[in-house]
Amino acid sequence: MKFITIDKNDWTQGIDKSRDTYQLFGPVTDENGCQIKKLDTNVQPEMEYHESIMSAKSILFPQTEKILHASLNESIEDHHIMKRAENSYTPRAVLGIRPYDAKAMEILNLNFDTKEFSDPYWCDAYEATTFIGLGINKPGPFDFSTSLGTGPFCEDGLDILLADIDDKYLAKVLTPKGEAYSSACGFDDTADEKESQVLFDILRKEAEKNITSHVETDKLKEKTILELHEAPFWDDIAFSCINCGTCTYVCPTCWCFDIQDETKQKEAARYRNWDTCMSPLFTRHATGHNPRASKVQRVRQRFMHKLKYFLDKYDQGIMCVGCGRCVKSCPVNIDIREVCLTMNNFEQTTSEPKE
Amino acid sequence: MENPYMPYPVRIDDIEIATEDKSLKTFKFVFLNEGDEEKFAYQAGQFAELSIPGVGEIPIGIASSPVEKGFVKFTVFRTGVVTSHLHNMKVGDIMGIRGPLGNWYPWEKLENKNVIIIGGGFAFTTLRSSIVYMLDPGNRSKFKNIDVVYGARSPGMLLYREELYEWEKRDDINMHITVDGTDDPDWKYHTGFVPQVVEQNAPKADEDTYAIICGPPIMIKFTQPSLTQLGYKPHQIIMSLENRMKCGIGMCGRCNIGKELVCKDGPVFTLDEINLTPKEY
Amino acid sequence: MDTCIKKIRELSADLLEKGEVEKVIGFAKGTIPMATSPIAIQSKQDVEKLVFNSTCGLNLANYASGQKGKIAIIAKGCDSRNIVTHIVENQIQRDQIYIIGVPCSGMVDKHKIAKLFEDEIIDFSEDGDTLIVSSFLKTLTLKKQDYLKGNCLYCTHKNPVLHDVMAADPVEEQVLENPFPDVDLIEALDLDAKWQYFENLTKNCIRCYACRNACPLCYCPTCFVDESSPQWVGKGQNKTDVNTFHFLRAFHCAGRCTDCGACVEACPMGINVRDFTRKLNKDSLELFGWEAGLDVTKRPPLDAYSPDDPDDFIK
After folding, report:
1. Is residue C314 part of a domain?
2. The CATH number of B107-240 is which of 3.40.50.80, 1.10.10.10, 3.40.630.30, 3.30.1300.10?
3. CB interface of B with A, residues 149-188, below 8 Å
4. Is C94 inside a domain boundary?
């Protein structure tokens, strides 16, 4: 493994050099809070940020993306024949991404790149993107990532992992893409491998000790889908929910989308937009029949998907990386950690007491 | 990389009004590009997304059969934005088809077995595909007895009427066509709801008999107990489900029933698989 | 403000025990600092879960529409005005709802407080008019009056306008010479600057519809953004579509909005959605002398016609 020392005074110059070949993305704060945005030429990523409201998934999976288009003009030879939209997949680099957000990309990949089908829009974007993560020395109070197989210094999904050491970054180059990026920046001050790894291990242990929020998921696998689905606690959990899409949109592992056609005069375009299982329309058939017509059913669906269906289907842990964004942003403070606890500890009684 | 969102361009070759109230039309499509028909090779039971640029896409069961070459047929009910637009299109119009999608009826498992096919209303499309497939000279010997129970509100609402009456005349298939009611004095077949006709005419269950049901949720709800009463075990009852779909390739996440995606793990499920899922369909 | 929580719990327990209502809708303590969560209490034992403090900024009338059976609601001034609106608009019958009125001295602006810290807030408590807020890096003692929600600054209905019982004595209402200075600022901009202002306002909107869903007025079975035949608004992030949603929704709330600020509180981006509705509230007052939700016998101005409605726009 290659380790590189980057003096913070050289950081800006280096990443500016990479702008020749990479489009940069990183955290920037505006009047609404911290967002992961495309960085214009003079804009630097705020490496000291503590959390962004939205995850980085919109870089690979934009909220609105044109996927196909066709001309409706019947005098053109190939009218009504759809073609792939020309989106750009020039190399991008995401700076300062949280390790759990990079791990979330691997979870999204399970959905978009399967044995039977590969989503070319996701796959092309994934291939073009280099993830430069920043280890979190002081995890925030909503970070429960260590309970979920990731953590403040987890390397899954990253191409480079940076450790913030006062006036320097120590970079661990994890993949050929990471290697290519560090070259593009001109960062070449190699550090001793053994010593660097030791330092990383120390930082990781310290950071993980600072995690104050934990969830237990050990008993979810052994329960059946039906017993959790039919459990009596869903009405209470769902009462306050207002069925907006906040939790699903801020979540780094939520992947549901809608496909919509739009026309403008003689041009037809097919768009893919984020969608939310919280919406009443999500499962509504054209006939009007709706398998999840009530709020309780939709709230239950979200938590069952995250904490049970995904677990059973992919056997890779639950569909959550512990970023805590939904906990922080939910308007009515529905807390996935509480729901997980309730589900994990649920014991089915053999006879239901009748009231 | 194949783009699974890209439809094959097709031309509408023929439009037939399928029911007396004109709410269903059967569309015959021909592929524009040479080689697309081979790529679209499908099995009876699958569906495809009919794609109209600028309007949208709809998931529809394939009504034509794999043994019918040179075209694909779909029977579409007019109910929403895309289906209404489709119903107003003309022969010669260009649109797209994406697929084939989903899994299919378990043809390998059904070899050397008796099969009873039960359909209601306009859910008979993939069942037509199946029957044509089974009756094809190259395939008929693979199966033992074939029984079909198919019912609709009235004679004019039965799909593929001419073909049904032809099949009724054959001796290698037992047709039990029924309608809820009719004032046609020349109606020669059954009158009554599908569940009753199933109870009265379906073969008793044994290890070698399987039932395929396709229909609106309410029909399935009432027919399945009849089958269970006749002794059919859950693994012998094969159902084709529907759900709201968009991508059809298991990525947009909306068609799930528990952990099964109807567009990818289904739409064909056996009753014992369904019994393990929440009833959200 | 906390002094009336004992009374709220007492009243709720009493109502539930006597079977006078099936549930009491109020706020429960949140799992994170500065948060509270709406809750429906159905048995007397659970009333201890109810809380009431300066972070109860959502509008509980949102949970009142479409209820069957009799319910009780803990209502601040703005909540009670929305209950009046629900009654006028036939979303609930007067005798279905038992209002436990709570006089309100204002709710805090969580986004504004969060901006004072570089890291996450880990503790929040109140002591009278003082707020004590801490993160890992620092602790701040703040005056609540300096951190009120935008709508609380201009509130002239702190006391419930309709109630069955009051949990505490009424507080003094403020009298404002100009209740809309924020609207005046925007009105003073030229057309281009105004356009820019609103484009900038919604630049981070993610169409989550938290604002719409937290709003008690938005109870349409199918919202206009969800219609497909015909489709009025695109579902993507096109700026025109995003702004169409906000402008149209504001107009659907015109003459009905009580400026409760639930929309801003719910927004994950802290967008001041009230900039869309405040101008319409000002117009309602100036053109029709109308404030929403004060009288169960009167219909809002866009609902009713009177020959002396202002018509100087007809040239």
Report:
1. no
2. 3.40.50.80
3. none
4. yes
**What are the residues facing C39 on neighbouring strands?**
C26
Chains near B with 3+ CB pairs less than 8 A apart are: A, C
Q: Same domain, yes or no, for C119 and C55? A: no
Q: What is the pLDDT of residues A283-311, one digit of tens each?
A: 999 888 899 999 999 999 999 999 999 99
First to last CA, chain B: 33
Residues in chain C: 315
pLDDT in tens, A33-83: 999 999 999 899 999 887 899 999 999 999 999 999 999 999 999 999 999
Chain B residues 235-264 with a CB less than 8 Å from chain A: 242-244, 246-247, 249-259, 264
For residue range A181-191, list pLDDT tens digits in order: 999 999 999 99
CA–CA min distance B90, chain C (Å): 22
**Interchain contact, A84 vs B254, CB within 8 Å:** no
C288 part of contact set with chain A, CB < 8 Å: no
CATH superfamily of the B8-101 domain: Translation factors (2.40.30.10)
- Put simply, the chain B residues between 32 and 61 with a CB less than 8 A from any chain A CB are 32, 51-58
- The whole domain housing C130 covers 110-147
C228 occurs within a structural domain? yes
| Token digits of residue C228 | 């497909």
| Entry pTM | 0.94
User: Are C14 and A320 spatial neighbours (Cβ–Cβ below 8 Å)?
Assistant: no
Question: Which pLDDT tens digit goes with each residue over C95-146?
Answer: 999 999 999 999 999 999 999 998 899 999 999 899 999 999 999 999 999 9
Helix (H, G, I), strand (E, B) or coil at A113: strand
Domain membership flag for residue C313: no
Contacts of residue C253, Cβ cutoff 8 Å, sequence gap at least 6: C215, C217, C218, C277, C280
Total domains, chain C: 2
Answer whether A32 sits within 8 Å of C271, measured CB to CB.
yes
Please give the ipTM for the structure prediction: 0.94
Confidence category of residue A352, pLDDT binned at 50, 70, 90: low
